[in-house]
Amino acid sequence: MKNNTIKAGTIIGLSSILICLDSLLKINLGSFHLQLGVATILLASPLIFLSLKSEPTTLDATYFVLLIYICLNFPFAINKDVFLTGLSYVLIFTILYKTIGRVSRFINWERVSTFALLTLIITGFFQYSLINIFDHQLELRGIDASYYQHKGNLGYRMRGFFLEPNWFGLTLFSWSFLFIYKKASFSTIDFLILLLTAVCIYLSENRLIYILYLYIITMFFFSKRAESLSKLVPVLSVSVAIFIYILLSISGLDLTDRSAAARTYTMAQTWNVWIESSLIEKIFGYGFSNWGYYSNLWELSWSNYRFDQALTRRDNAEIYVFLFEMGLASIILFMVDLFFIGKKSKKPILPIFISSIYISSFFYPIFNFLFYLIPMMVVRHEILKKNQ
């Protein structure tokens, strides 16, 4: 049993670090690219479950209700292939999530998070130096330098071996949280790693990451001062954030930032469609995987004015895509989830971190990226296990 746990823990730990190399290790599967670290966990998962079958299982009820809800949308999918592509991302996340949960307690996450951060820092400075010192754009996954042309300073921001800086920043954020959470004490080297992490986030120019750090720190201290409300902080903060996001979008606020303007425009368009929808469509939406079809048909996004987007595209943020595809029911499910983990957790900081990932969905299309966020899976299992 001991040898099995060591082997399983080593596989998951090494795979987690490989995921930080992102596009350097992508496998082309035709309809999408599968990262080698992700593929390794998928292949190892049956053996891990068999070898550790005596390990207690953790039930994540709200997540599996959402999974069932997504599957029930199959009859309403306009394009079944698009639905199955979207579902494949959900299933990959589910397998990784359950596999990591089965073996998590045997893994030294403090050590893994240290190596993950070092990998991101080294690759970040390598890529940043290539473009800003040697004027050479790192080309990965078959995407050449032209991808970054006419996109402002996108190609000059730190992104490591990720295709875009936003994903690099979100990965840095999640691993840095786990790194800090798992540390019993901090050495000089640890502080240096955190300093370099902060420099990398600055050079990647991810404003959202600053907001997420500020949110976590503020809500953590609020939870300490108002313990009676601490378990409600995640659901209340995300609910308020959704309200403000929708309000700003439909107010027609003129934003100078092009990305922010594109998101608020699409949110406003989606809101108008939702308001005019039938009661059934308001509650259950237009069907999972159907955003691409309807956004092209009704020109919901700025991108649709230039040309039709791929049917699998989920636009620039997840919140309005979920509202459109799976209605108010999906938003309620997410709020129930935040309430549940807030109530379950004995450590307020953990559900606050989970809620920060929810907030990131207002700004990034994270649906197809969730299985990169290993720290989020670790934290959810930390919350749900019987003895925290």
Automatic annotation (TrEMBL):
Transmembrane helix keyword on record: yes
Recorded coiled-coil stretches: none
Membrane-spanning residues: 32-52, 58-75, 82-100, 112-131, 161-180, 186-203, 232-253, 319-341, 353-379
Record bears the keyword Transport: no
Highest taxon listed in the record's lineage: Bacteria
Keyword set, alphabetical order: Membrane, Transmembrane, Transmembrane helix
Name of the protein in its database record: O-antigen polymerase
Native source species: Halopseudomonas pachastrellae
